Amino acid sequence: MIDIKSPDNVSTAAVVSLGLLGGWLTARETGIRPLGGVILAAAGGWAIRSWLAKTDPVTTAGLTALYVGGFGASHPLAKKIGAWPAVAAVTAVAGGAACVLSDLK
Asked: Which domain of life is it from (predicted)?
């Protein structure tokens, strides 16, 4: 039997960071962009599971929009400041929001 961590005990800031940074790095290093999307989606699903348990539906929707929006915003931002700084910036914002609105409660 697999012992899955309770959603109340998951650090969603870490999961969000893993999804954004790990998804980007996976896509970059393998050259397979959809593989990076798998990492992004899996981490997002894991974070949403915890947000639903720890917060309310409105906060969950907002954090989800920020996560997905950060992914989308990193692309045009990368054209202005470079890929690594763009991914780092959106990860800091999304991870920070997850920490404050979910993990510290």
From this structure: Bacteria
Instruction: Give the pLDDT confidence of 5-16 residue by residue, as tens digits.
Output: 999 999 999 999
**Exposure string (b/e) for 30-52, b if CB count within 10 Å is 16 or more?**
eeeeeebeebbeebbebbbbbbe
pLDDT in tens, 49-71: 999 999 999 999 999 999 999 99
pTM for this structure? 0.94
- One-letter amino acid of 103: D
Q: Which of 62, 61, 50 is nearest to 103 (CA)?
A: 50
Alpha-carbon distance values, 23 to 2, 17, 29, 101 (Å): 25, 9, 10, 23
Backbone φ, ψ for residue 82 (5° rounding)? 105, 155
Q: Are residues 105 and 7 in contact, defined by beta-carbon separation less than 8 angstroms?
A: no
Query: In angstroms, rounded to a whole number, what is the distance separating the alpha carbons of residues 81 and 13?
Result: 24
